[in-house]
Amino acid sequence: MRKKERADYVYDVLNKKFPNVGTFLDHKNPFELLIAVILSAQCTDARVNIVTPALFKEFPTPLTLSIATHKEVADVIKSINFFNTKAKNIIKTSQILVHEYNSDVPASLKDLVTLPGVGRKTANVVLGQAFGIPGITVDTHVKRVSRRLGFTKKLDPVDVEFDLMKCWKKETWTEYSSVLILHGRSTCKAQNPHCHVCEFFDICPSKRK
């Protein structure tokens, strides 16, 4: 089975197994999603979802967050990894949104990656989940599973992303990222992958017998 055919097959199977996944981070609008994704770096989605309700109750808009003090924000998010740096980033990001984007979240990769704490992974989550613009989110699960399934041999997330663009259909990019993350969490684990129960055992170049 050629790479593109394998990619289509994997997506079809996982999309049926995990229908209508959506985002893993609770949010009501693009601003909340942007802030939540910034906070989620090197932190679990579950922890972020515990923290953000209080954060958005206190600072519901870019303006209110832009004028908050570092201590006010840090106190709310202190249970999140690297909370001091992230408090600084989300305040500065909010200031930029207010002063340069009329408090709106920009809907372009070029603009999003200029915001503090926002890389291509964060930007692609926002584009896909908030604006319906296809984007590939290369987190640790997508990188690992894509390499095992033979979609890429690269290690750098940006290189992996561009390889996946070549074999994934563009309209599936956002959803494919989400279902591959779930497959990585549930079956294709970093340690002791459950190859014996994996739906792709017969076609996986990295299967462990």
Topology summary:
Blueprint: H1 3-17, H2 30-39, H3 45-58, H4 62-66, H5 70-77, H6 83-100, H7 109-112, H8 120-131, H9 140-148, H10 157-167, H11 173-186
Average pLDDT, rounded to a whole number, is: 95
C-alpha end-to-end distance: 20 Å
Regions with little confidence, pLDDT below 50 for 5+ residues: none
Write down the Rg: 18 Å
Structural class: mainly alpha
How large a portion of the residues is in β-strands, by DSSP E? under 5%
Helix content: 55-70%
From the spread of the alpha carbons, the general shape counts as: elongated
Count of helical segments? 11
Question: How would you characterize the largest beta sheet?
Answer: none
Question: How many beta-strand runs?
Answer: 0
Order of helices and strands: HHHHHHHHHHH
What would you say about this model in short?
The chain has 209 residues and is mainly α.
Describe the 3D structure.
The chain has 209 residues and is mainly alpha-helical. It has helices spanning 3-17, 30-39, 45-58, 62-66, 70-77, 83-100, 109-112, 120-131, 140-148, 157-167, 173-186. Helix 1 crosses helix 11. The chain starts with a helix and ends in a 23-residue tail after the last helix. The mean pLDDT is 95.
